[in-house]
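Progress note, sequence design subtask.
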């Protein structure tokens, strides 16, 4: 598969966290949530307990925040509003924060192209195509 038709997609900040001080963490979220929204971010997953299918970590909460682009996510992280929130969080929780860039992939499964199939083939088996066409 080539990436010729791949366009930049949304940016995601993925956070694994271990909360050590619940009251201090509330102070952090009182500042961080407005900073996320001001930067155009939206929570995809917010503070859920993870179920690890493979591997392990001491994280007891996961957050995923979506931004329009990875650049916007990076700008959010470096913003004065988030950095002020981060200072409140440092003693309240341990974070492992990762930025990943999504991709807008071309649609490969829009509709089968029956006209591209060889007339010598019987596909699907039995020769019946959707809608009764043969």
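Output:
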């Amino acid at each position: 598969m080539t990436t010729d038709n791949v366009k930049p997609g949304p940016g995601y900040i993925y956070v694994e966290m271990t909360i050590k001080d619940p009251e201090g963490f509330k102070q952090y979220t009182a500042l961080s949530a407005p900073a996320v929204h001001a930067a155009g971010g939206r929570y995809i997953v917010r503070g859920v307990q993870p179920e690890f299918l493979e591997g392990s970590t001491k994280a007891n909460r996961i957050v995923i925040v979506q931004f329009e682009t990875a650049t916007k996510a990076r700008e959010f992280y470096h913003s004065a509003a988030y950095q002020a929130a981060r200072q409140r969080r440092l003693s309240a929780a341990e974070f492992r924060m990762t930025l990943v860039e999504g991709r807008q992939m071309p649609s490969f499964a829009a509709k089968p192209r029956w006209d591209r199939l060889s007339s010598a083939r019987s596909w699907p088996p039995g020769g019946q195509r959707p809608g009764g066409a043969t």
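The chain has three helices and four strands. Work on this subtask will continue into the next period as scheduled.
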